[in-house]
Amino acid sequence: MQNTEDKQIPVVAYIITDDEGLKLRPVELTRVVRLLSDPHSSQLFERHVHALNRITLKYEYGFLIRDLVHVFKILNICADRVAQHTCYVQPMCKLLHICGLSYLTEKMSDESAYSQIVIESVSQMGYLMRVPNSSVRSALADALISLYCNPPTSQDVYQDLKPASHEYNIRMVESSDVAETLVKSLSLFHNNLEIQLKILRVLQKLSCSSAVNCDKMLQSEAAYRICCEMNSPDPSGYLLFISVEIIWNLLELGGDEVTKQLANLQCVNALKEAFRELMISGCSNYEKQLRNDLLVITTLLCQNPSAPIVESGFAKQIVLFATFSEVKSYNPLLRNLKLTQSHEDFELKKMLINLLEILSKDHAALQILSDGKVLLSLFHYVKSDDGKVKPRDWSPAQFEELQLHAMSALNKLSVLLIDDYMICQGNTRLLLLLEWCLGKEPFTGHGNSFHGSGGRGNKKAQMRQCLRLLLAVVSNSNEIASKDLCDQGILNQLLDVLENFFSTDCDNAIDIELQCDILYILSRLCENDIHRKELFGGQGVDILIQYLKANPAKLSSGLGHHRLMLASVDATWCCAIGCFSTEDLLLEKGGVFYLIDLLQSCPRNMHNLILGCLLELCENPKTIAHIHTWRGMSDITAPHLLIQLWREEEKSMGVLRDETGCIVDITAPIAGAMQREQVVVPQSATALSSSIVDVSENLRAKIYALFAKLGFSDLPGLTTQDYVALAVIEKYLDFKLGEVWLEISSELQVENVVATSPDQEALETINRAASERAKGVAMLQTELLEAEKQQDLHEEKLFYAEVKENHKQQKNTISRWEDFVKRTSDHNHLVDCKNQQQKSIESSKTKPRQGNTTKKLSTTFHDTTSKNLNTTTFQGRHVTVESTPAELTGERAQLLG
Questions:
Q1: Which of 12, 231, 287, 588 is the most exposed place for a label (fewest CB within 10 A)?
Q2: In contact, 170 and 124? CB cutoff 8 Å
Q3: What are the residue ranges of helices labelled H in 630-756?
Q4: Among candidate residues 155, 245, 144, the one with its CA nearest the CA of residue 195
Q5: Domain boundary among 781, 799, 817
Q6: Where do the Cilia- and flagella-associated protein 69 ARM repeats domain residues begin and end (predicted)?
Q7: Centroid of chain to Cα 269
Q8: How deeply is 333 buried, as exposed, middle or buried, from its count of CB atoms within 10 A (0-12, 13-18, 19+)?
Q9: Domain assignment present for 451
Q10: pLDDT tens digits for 415-435?
Q11: Could you tell me if residue 674 is inside a domain?
Q12: Residues 6+ apart with CB under 8 A from 437
């Protein structure tokens, strides 16, 4: 007991808490670096491995961001020794695994303070691909994917340490050159499929959503390298899949540089081979999707003119696959090839049709398209859909979408392959389809496709594409196709369609577009052909009148009525004007009135077309009377409206005029601001000068030509301001000639060309005559304004004289009233007035002529006046007495009462 009591219990001087236990106890990395690099300890492999394992144990949740320099020194030393000593492989893989975790920071500022070190460290990870060991390379690829894609798993691993954010890791990877290094390292792994797939997987992750990584990959020709190697032997097929996905990402985020790298024979052949194999042998849904992705890449590549699509034979192969289901072929590639109603095959068919349209931009491919009977294949869909699904045929919804897509492609292809179009009887097919669109047969259009908007439950989508295709054909200026259409009665058919629109009262954007297309087709067919204008006839003129008198308020509705109005005026110009019979019908129905009404109410950008139409119509002498007869809003006349348009045009051009509209600059009386500021430069003989270009760029030439038809005198409804502007309009052609000669003189001076004496004298005479003419017009304008001023002054005097006369009559009325009051209130004055009245009566009686005073008058005067009356008025049976108003006398009576 004694010994037991004497035995002392040890006292624990230091107790470790849980929090302190979680603190990271850093390993002296500098000691490990010295251990690995010291030549005296270079052969102590077991100690090396032990030290590396201690590092992996202590830093299992990530390296400190400030220790990355030492960590990558250790990794680089191990990388240099792996080839001779495989004992470093396992520790190195563990270290790389930790490098794939988010780096740990002690302070908030560590991320920005050590950003450059992190960027260089990530770049070093890419350089470690030089290690000739598959395990290390695989671990390195996994680490890069983890660092770039995985967010930190825990935020509180150690006390006072936080992992860097995921966004920070992404930013550091993008700032490094690891993407370029990985692309360049692909050339090291031709015979190592596993590592090649690993690296491609990393590149796929890097390029998925980062344009920065895509740009860096493209700097190392990633698209070219990957495309050339994507057909390497791979039993799993994953190499082709991951390669296509990377190229897709590069196309999406890398811009035009991708197609530049792919636009070479090696890449095109690789795409061609991959697509052919998947087209022939691809059966699964995965393979069909991959095949479609390759076709999308090919479509984007075809838009690069330098891509050798034709030279490589890829274009011929595409045409073969695009037409095999409609055009019979004995090519062995197509022996067992069939398309189903699956979504992937349907998308393939649409993309092939779209690719045919893109190929047509290359003129070298046109012969291939013609030999492949592309138009015949597309016209297979230009027919009515009876809704009956045949075996191995498309569903009604799919057929409708393919039909609209094929007709959209035919818009361009038919123009380029017009001979094939005529061989396929394209006009007949289109007119039959148009007739079906107008028929009453029930049709439940699905309207699902891009080209089928507005066509759900009706045939409007088919009609729209049909009319667009017809418009493309007639706009090609191919007389054979146009004549064939007219011979088949297209004019009457289209006019019936327009009449149908009036009867149904349709007013939406699609219906307006259809009407515009029809009017454009009619314009192209009837232009410069009198016989077709005669066929257009009264029915067509009636329809044009209906369009011309439409409500101008609809022009700003946003539905396209302004396009419809322009198409109507264009059709009037091309279909009715130029043929006497249709012109007379147009005049009889008030066509000129409607055109001028439209000119008054329409926006400024439509004036040019309407004025041109009116000017062409003025070739008919009957038109002049209609123009003079027209009256618009506020009862203005056509000449007044034209002069108003002239003033607005000069104001928009910046022509110098004073507040009264008179000429300011005698040397440039009609030049606009741009023309005055333009510097004279030497030009070729065929180049147009600014004075000549000005004629076609504004309305003044057309307005002058109209006045030349109407005359410059005896115009109704003009004000003095109008006559001031009319003086300039009348001399427009002379002023324009003066401008041209002035430009000639200026160009001669700029080019240092000295004219001969007669030529110089002629130039001076012409310039002097132009100035004198401008002065004369300015004087005429001044005289007109002065005459107006004098006329206004004269009218003012007449007005004041009338006012004065009115005041004089008022004074006479007042004096008569005062005399009346005085006669009624002063008896003596009344007697005097009575005597004066008697004298006036006596003096008014007939008297004997001079020299016959002795001869008695044969006329006897009887006195009809009543005697002793104290009035100066003539009395009758009834006497009206003017007295004080009753309301005053009544009030007076009440006061007296």
A1: 12
A2: no
A3: 638-653, 673-677, 690-697, 700-710, 720-730, 732-750
A4: 144
A5: 799
A6: 27-744
A7: 38
A8: middle
A9: yes
A10: 999 999 999 999 999 999 999
A11: yes
A12: 459, 460, 462, 463, 466
